[in-house]
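quick one, two chains, predict together pls
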Amino acid sequence: GENVEQHPSTLSVQEGDSAVIKCTYSDSASNYFPWYKQELGKRPQLIIDIRSNVGEKKDQRIAVTLNKTAKHFSLHITETQPEDSAVYFCAARFYGQNFVFGPGTRLSVLP
Amino acid sequence: GAGVSQSPSNKVTEKGKDVELRCDPISGHTALYWYRQSLGQGLEFLIYFQGNSAPDKSGLPSDRFSAERTGGSVSTLTIQRTQQEDSAVYLCASSLPSGGAYEQYFGPGTRLTVT
């Protein structure tokens, strides 16, 4: 079955710096890769996603890149702000199957 | 429109009791997922439904856990003879047909505490 690894488990950056979180997946048939942000005590919220026919997608300060050959995808947050502090989860999904989530990255943006 | 709702929001139960958790997905969403999240941990897949059928039950931790979905809408997750290790937040999510690459929308969760 699919397995998703995520690194780092914790990440601290200074406000204004960039943050990068990386995930790898095992099933080459996975075709959809969402990223979720979860603030303390809240539900996960989708922040960006990418499909397997696309290599990069951007939405303001966040971007996701996908390397299908290497089976890894990354989340990039630029100009980080304190409100970006949260736990971020990546996930992978095979067509018609379940989502498999990474273990999460706790991002702290220091003012 | 209305999002995914779950009830109860909090449930405290004694060890050995049965509990039922409810999920109301977004109208028209045929795929429904249950996850468990222990404090400070990631999302553990439990089960997912496509319509009323459950193609993947592989995540259910034991035979004390079961889930059903009727009318392609509301789902209930039942935990029998609860144990302290069942304490967690149970999250439900729904999406458009699972054959497509559609995003999941999560409910607020049910926080279960087994004493």
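The mean pLDDT of chain A is 93.
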